[in-house]
Amino acid sequence: MNFMHTLHCLYFRAALHITIKIAFVALVGANEFAPTALLSPREEGLILNKKLLP
Fold this sequence. Notes:
By secondary structure, the protein is an all-alpha fold. The chain is 80% helix and 0% strand.
C-alpha cells in the first residue's frame, strides 16, 4: 500500500514536471528553451519567474 502511494507520488511529480516543461516551451519558445533542458526544476522556476515578471 505504502509503496503504491510512493510510486503514485513519483509518477504525479514526473507528469507535473513534464507538463511544466511543455508550458515552458510554449511560453518561451523552443529556441530559448533548448539550453534550459539541462537545468533543475528549481532553476527552471527561477528563469520562468524572470521571463514572466518584469
